[in-house]
Amino acid sequence: MAYDLVIVGGGSAGCVLANRLSADGDRSVLVIEAGPDYLSQADLPEDIAGAAYAPQTHDWGYTAEPDAFGNAVAVPRGKVIGGSSSTNYCFAMRARPADHAAWVERGNPGWGYDDVLPDYRAMESFAHGNDEFHGRTGTYRITRDSWEDLAPTAAASAKAAAVLGYADVDDVNAPGPPGFSLAPLSAVDGIRQSTALAYLNPVRDRENLRVRGGEEVDRVLVDGGRAVGVRLRSGEEIAAGTVILAAGTYNTPAILMRSGIGPAGHLAELGIDLVRDLPGVGQNLTEHPVMWNIHAARPPDDTQAPMFQTALSVRHDPADPDYDLHVLPTAAVPTAALPEAFVPPVSEHPTGWDMIFFVACVQPRSRGTVRLASPSAADAPVIDLGLYTHPDDAPRVAEAVRIARRLAGTSPLSELLVGERAPGPGVGDDELADAVRRAPSHYNHACGTARMGPASDPEAVVGSDCRVHGIDRLAVVDASVMPTIPRVPTNPTTILVAEHAAKLLR
User: Fold this and answer.
1) What pLDDT score does 346 carry?
2) So what's the pLDDT on residue 1?
3) What is the DSSP string of 9-55?
4) Are strands 369-371 and 382-384 parallel, antiparallel or unpaired?
5) Active-site residue 445, yes or no?
6) Please, where are the H alpha helices in 71-132?
């Protein structure tokens, strides 16, 4: 059967596109999702439904290439309907005006903050903040805990931040200076509001919309410079009037390259026939580098608090137009519940509970790549995160660790902690940057591998309308098109990209 529109990937962007583009009943739409398609909230596994942690039971299992110290870092990506919006920590922080300005500066008109603010407002259902910046009745439901509902360590972190002179920010999703704030979350009554729940499920009964779960796309079929369909790993071919790739930062460039669209030299090495030489495919991989600053914590009285409720943003680099560091304090969590890939278990722990500061540089200068291991879709892409390959990034993450340490040592937070476990009290301030380099981690916010830009930019893959340069009827709509990384968790920005692109693609 042929479809007017085939969307490859039922993730953060794909479910949004399915909703918006199937609203025209005369357009037949097929969504192809590699992971399982759970048809309702009642069908979801408990860990996918619950918003307390980031589950890893539905994952692609990708691991990045080893760095200079031999560290091979896991790169979790949700392999399930809703994609990584079904497996994330639910932070619902918008890209900042400075982030959108950077996109426009790179030749992408129409993506400035004032241009997309109507989309942010229209997509949002949020009870707080000024009407100028927020929507109340949109599809994307966001909540925020009150100061009275914070976990003890989160509340104590806020008080410690005030003692240290950091400003209190009332609305992190409105323009304004950085500081300590309550974190808006895409969670309602403890249920993660994935794009599958928010966007796809309400329109599943549309006769012109079909979803196929458990199917992987091998490549886009191109004939005469025009996308005409897709081929699945099974060999089945599906005809399409238009193909939209929404497979994510790692899989979208892999599909493009298997289709013969990408760097000519790399494709020639693999024996893939060249359809379109686009050198930027798989380049510009950008990720927020993170260190887990872990402190043993006293057991809390209430063990049901969400892991994340607050965020501290800091402008450390005076040349940056906005903040460039994050310090995210968690609730006290059982040590046994933390992922062993990032927090190796210990034989003896003073309390069995930990509080973590996720400290990050949110405007990194390092870049990585995504390449193919072979022409086969059965082989995972070769992912080089490039963390700390630019000399400026590790010192900035080290500065964020220093800020976290000052918070941990300030009353009343200091009374709830019993000592630093990582990087550990033996690592002094002058050794922090080296310790950061040797313990690479990331926010799981990768983007940029099919970046947006004008056709005159040799590294651009899609135009500001998200259509692939030089290939008719082929578009990319996911985090891979972001030309620069926003200084926030990327999931809300990915949803915004899909909302805005859906209007352009209509």
Assistant:
1) 81
2) 81
3) --STTHHHHHHHHTSSTTS-EEEEESS----SGGGS-HHHHB-SS--
4) antiparallel
5) yes
6) 97-105, 113-123
Q: Which two tokens stand for residue 191?
A: 């249920």
Buried b (16+ CB within 10 A) or exposed e, 332-357: bbebeebeeeebeeeeeeeeebbbbb
Task: Give the CA distances from residue 136 to residues 116, 124, 126, in Å, rounded to whole numbers and listed in that order.
Answer: 17, 6, 5
**Which residue ranges of the chain lie beneath pLDDT 50?**
none
Which residue spans within 143-201 are E strands per DSSP? 168-169, 180-182, 187-188, 191-192
Whole-angstrom distance, CA of residue 272 vs CA of residue 261: 9
For the segment 404-449, what is each residue's pLDDT rounded down to a tens digit? Answer: 999 999 999 999 999 999 999 999 999 999 999 999 999 999 999 9
pLDDT of residue 62: 97
Return all residues near 463 (Cβ < 8 A) that are at least 6 apart: 452, 453, 454, 455, 469
Catalytic residue among 134, 288, 326, 445: 445
**Separation of alpha carbons 303 and 146, rounded Å:** 17
How do residues 185-231 score in pLDDT, each as one tens digit?
999 999 999 999 999 999 999 999 999 999 999 999 999 999 999 99
Question: In the structure encoding, which two tokens stand for residue 504, read together?
Answer: 């352009």
The DSSP bridge pattern shows strands 180-182 and 191-192 to be unpaired
Tokens of 3: 């479809």
Q: Which two tokens stand for residue 310?
A: 């607050």
